Design the sequence.
């Protein structure tokens, strides 16, 4: 069995982070995850008695996550 490298180079780490980020962005766009996120945001808005549109807040949140991960 070949020994496994114990650490990543900076370039490898950046590539891995980018790949995982792209996968997460794609997953966030799926109906199942989007629905769960929308429900979570709506429950949070209600529980905290916020004067905010849950749908708009959820859209903004997904956009922010997408920008951060892309």
Sequence:
């Amino acid at each position: 069995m070949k020994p496994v490298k114990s650490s990543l180079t900076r370039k490898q780490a950046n590539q891995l982070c980018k790949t995982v980020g792209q996968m997460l962005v794609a997953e966030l766009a799926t109906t199942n995850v989007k629905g769960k996120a929308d429900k979570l945001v709506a429950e949070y808005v209600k529980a905290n008695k916020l004067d905010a549109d849950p749908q708009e807040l959820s859209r903004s949140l997904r956009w922010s996550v997408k920008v951060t991960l892309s």
